[in-house]
Model the fold of this input.
Amino acid sequence: MAWFKKAKKPIDADPSKPSRVPEGLWVKCTGCSKILYNKDLSQNMSVCPKCGFHFRMGSLDRIKSLFDGEWTEYDRDLMSTDPLRFSDTKPYAKRLKASIESTGMKDAVVVASGRIEGYDAIVAAMEYGFIGGSMGVVVGEKITRGIERAISTRRPMVIVSCSGGARMMEGALSLMQMAKICAALAHLAQERLPYISVLTDPTTGGVTASFAMLGDLNIAEPGALIGFAGPRVIEQTIRQKLPEGFQRSEFLLEHGMLDLIIDRREMKAALARAFRFMGQHPAEEVETAAIPAEA
Ligand SMILES: [Zn+2]
Done:
């Protein structure tokens, strides 16, 4: 062996690959390539303090970031039964088990009630870490029950989407969830209760094609990928180059697909403002108003 030569070549970092969020102390920002201290990042709601790039956020962190304090989670233990006994490169049952272990959740959505700046509300937050946030029977059922709960308790509904679309391992059953959730939302609209859709990176496929675009207000986070089919599929189909920034929040806002783009750090205040605008009253106001009526 040579004395002054390294026997093994060092591994070259691939600059073309975007860095993913590691579990270590430091994170490289995808937006500005600066190195960020992980703790600073999580204290800043996973938004880069230097350039404002929005990292993907877990569903529990999302719930925490929106509610004032305590919240109540619903239907935590609903689980998919793998109705088709589906298997692709891996059996679906195994994928489910791996996701349950890695996320500590039973499926890809958390539905909870709590207060947003004093306003009682029901929030459903999707979890991308669970099979790409895909919408299967359980996600559909949990969101639908959340909407029904919003109707019975007269509260506004917020759905934070973060999903690759319908869960193909549940076939047509997952597609039926689109109609089911939309029907529940129509009922909510008849009851004249607000529904606000928050679209985060990424919101695609059957989720965009159903409830994510049905909000009384459709609010997106900056720079989020929002679309139905992916850009590559569209390019191959129409045989044309897509414009710059296609399917990003800013492009969609400009073209009338969205109502607002709001920084994650301002989201809670914006939701409360929207509730007020839509005729909702803060919970304490409702309670004090109820006392003289009962006396
Ligand atoms: Zn940055």
User: Anything to note?
Assistant: The chain is about 35% helix and 15% strand. The longest helix spans residues 171-190. The CA atoms of residues 194 and 278 lie 7 Å apart. The pocket of zinc ion is lined by residues 29, 31-32, 34, 48, 50-51, 53 (CB under 6 Å).
